[in-house]
Amino acid sequence: MDLRSRIEGVAALRRELPLGGILKEGFVLSEGPSDLSVEGPENKTKFSELFTPGKDTLVAYSFMLAPGANPCPACTSLIDGLDDMTPHIRDRMNFTIFTKAPISEFRAWGQSRGWRNVRLLSTAQTTFNTDYKAETDDNAQTPVINVFRKTDGGIFRSWASEMVFAPWPEDMHPRHADSIWPLWNVFDLTPDGRGDWFPRTTYD
Length: 204
Prior knowledge:
Elements: H1 2-15, E1 28-31, E2 43-46, E3 57-63, H2 73-83, H3 86-90, E4 94-99, H4 103-113, E5 120-122, H5 128-131, E6 145-151, E7 154-160, H6 182-188
């Protein structure tokens, strides 16, 4: 009970943080039809249009997938777990998955995984990834969670998973996305724990 109180206390402190910087520009993103099983033309979506009426919060996860590269197994595991939860999340707020790869590549990967609910968008023609630390100077992709808040004064970033940029202890991955990744919480309940296991995209 003490642990739960401490976790909820941190969440309360997070909610009290002042808003961060205003959105750097009106990014125009690419996406396809909302139904992943349907093929259709590529659409252009303004960042501001990601905020549906009555919902002023947007959670955006940056999926590690560079153009022509292999999708990240860990990111894939995370979205596998969140896809079925997405309708529940969207009842309260907006939720999207960004990637640097062209939307056709991202949608093809989502289709192969059986994703049905997550909203996939490509940042390929924008500077979003470099502006919001989802890409390094040498074009390596970084899996960042960004939370944005829409106000009368504009769109502001309210939080980001900055632990991914902290120094890593030798025996510990930064695990910056654990709070939204159900898989690890299951392992933590068991005598074997997490071990040195890491997600794969296929299992024998």
